[in-house]
Amino acid sequence: MSAPRFRHFMAIDWSGAVGARQKGIAVALCGLDGGAPEVLRPRGHLLWSREDVLDLLLHHLPEDTLVGLDLGIALPFADAGAFFPGWDDSPADARGLWAMIDVICAGDPHLSATSFVEHARASAYFRRHGGREGIHFHLPGAPHRRGRMRVTEQAQARAGCKPYSNFNLVGAAQVGKSSLTGMRMLHRLEGRVPVWPVDPLPARGSLIVEIYTALAAVAADRTASRAKMTSHEALAEALASLGSPPVAGTGPIDDHTADAVLTAAWLRTAAPREALWQPAGLTEDLARTEGWTFGAP
After folding, report:
1. Where are the domains of the chain?
2. Which tens digits make up the pLDDT trace of 87-145?
3. For every residue of the chain, which 3-state class applies, written as one string?
4. Does the pLDDT at position 262 exceed 80?
């Protein structure tokens, strides 16, 4: 299948932090006209909530938008043949995982996922604060210090990035909390916006993909260790590498906004590349269970 043709490109830097509104959520949008990405704000507020983003995806997307979400859309599965090996209720696929998390966390406000990571059975698979490492955080005989990895995360590492397991909930580099809260949101989309590669590429319309903003930074001639940008000048230099004009402003910029802006511009350049939609390591089983990160080789 040839690469899909989108008209708009949106990047969302996500957050799994506790609370109604998050400094860590940033949204940027650009089009085919080659202009600089626009930083979007929620209606009536300075900060986004996760519910705001859900509403945006359901009701306010421009037509034919490729949406990149900076979170893991699933947990590792291929390494053990299950998300939660040894647990009879372990879901069979990504959509089942999203539903399970949302049901267990039904009472958690703001699409948070505290109830899942504190769950009597689920907690055994996570590394949590206070030195609480579940007995299933590592697979027997495979004690990777960062925890279990999806196949796409192994591909990210080959591209020069430093991914962490979605089962890890500790440290500044962890992505587990944001991934779990993001899975709650994906479940609540109820299939109204397809999620690649869990869902096939649509012939038309909008689509959600998982992104890793470090991949966009590497494409913009920055190294993974220099992926974070905190000045308009650094962001402008990276945007220029992608053929994009700079965003207005000088001096400091928060790294969440910079990530969203740069990744939106990168999605515009990356979406037409057919090879990125057909990574060598992606199988039908992986698409159904673990998913994939758009742009990972």
Report:
1. 8-73+187-277, 94-185
2. 999 999 999 999 999 999 999 999 999 999 999 999 999 999 887 889 999 887 665 66
3. CCCCCCCEEEEEECCCCCCCCECCCEEEEEECCCCCCEEECCCCCCCECHHHHHHHHHHCCCCCEEEEEECCCCCCCCCCCCCCCCCCCCCCCHHHHHHHHHHHCCCCHHHCCHHHHCCCCHHHHCEECCCEECCCCCECCECCCCCCCCHHHHHHHHCCCCCCCCCECCCCCCCHHHHHHHHHHHHHCCCCCCEECCCCCCCCCCEEEECCHHHHHHHCCCCHHHCCCCEHHHHHHHHHHCCCCCCCCCCECCHHHHHHHHHHHHHHHHCCCHHHHCCCCCCHHHHHHCCCECCCC
4. yes
